[in-house]
Amino acid sequence: MNDDARPLETEFHGDASLGALLAALEPHVGKELLIDYGGRMIRPGYHITEIKAGSFVTLDCGGNPDAWQETILQIEDIAQEAEGGYLSVDKFRAILDQVAQRVELDAGARLTFEVGPPAAAMQIFDVDGLRMEAGRVILRLVARSAICKPRHRVRQEAATCCGPKSAGKDCCAA
Q1: How many Å apart are CA 10 and CA 27, to the nearest integer?
Q2: Interval 130-171: pLDDT, tens
Q3: CB neighbours (10 Å) of residue 155?
Q4: CB 74 within 8 A of CB 7
Q5: Res 158: pLDDT
Q6: Which of 11, 71, 130, 157 could pair with 18 in a Cys bridge, judged by C-beta atoms 3.0 to 4.6 Å apart?
Q7: 18 exposed, middle or buried (CB, 10 Å; 0-12, 13-18, 19+)?
């Protein structure tokens, strides 16, 4: 498939799994992988410092239990020490493949990035999308906001109930 036939953007809107990101990157092997996070572009020389496979069991402020799998990629935004450019898509995928040989990585796990320069606190990001431009792939990350899950859940249910698909229903009546 030629580059012109590939989509220029892939949207995740903060809800990417490890498998979905790897699949979206697959056609772009050989291209540089840049990361746009927190309003800045990562520097050439960035380093994947740790990959974590987590299993979480929680209880939210409303007393609701939850459980999920998560893959966390920790990245240090450091300047390159020698000649060279950004990490390539194939090198990024190879690092994850190497980790997967020793640590069980769930392809369906929620994907989280922890990113920051050495002199600053790491920030937590979700994957917003991928954009292809000039032979490069730009991974766009968005900061993860804190939310009250019960309040968020009620708002989602109200939006579904009161949305256009449920016109004529009186589920929104007080």
Answers
A1: 12
A2: 999 988 999 999 999 888 888 877 877 777 676 555 555 555
A3: 12
A4: no
A5: 76
A6: 71
A7: buried
Please state, in angstroms and rounded to a whole number, the distance separating the CA atoms of residues 26 and 89.
Answer: 8
For the stretch 129-133, contacts whose Cβ atoms lie closer than 8 Å and that sit 24 or more positions apart, written own/partner, are 129/9, 129/10, 129/11, 129/12, 129/13, 130/9, 130/10, 130/12, 130/21, 130/24, 130/25, 131/8, 131/9, 132/3, 132/6, 132/7, 132/8, 132/9, 132/28, 132/31, 133/8
DSSP symbol at 156:
H
Q: Looking at the chain, how many residues does it have?
A: 174
Q: Which pair of structure tokens corresponds to residue 69?
A: 């799998």
Q: Distance between CA atoms of 78 and 45, rounded to whole angstroms? A: 6
Tell me the domain boundaries of the chain.
9-163
Give the chain's residues under pLDDT 50: 1, 3-4, 173-174
At 162 the pLDDT is 65
CA nearest neighbour of 22 among 89, 70, 71, 87: 89
Alpha carbon distance, N-terminus to C-terminus of the chain: 55
Report pLDDT for 1: 45
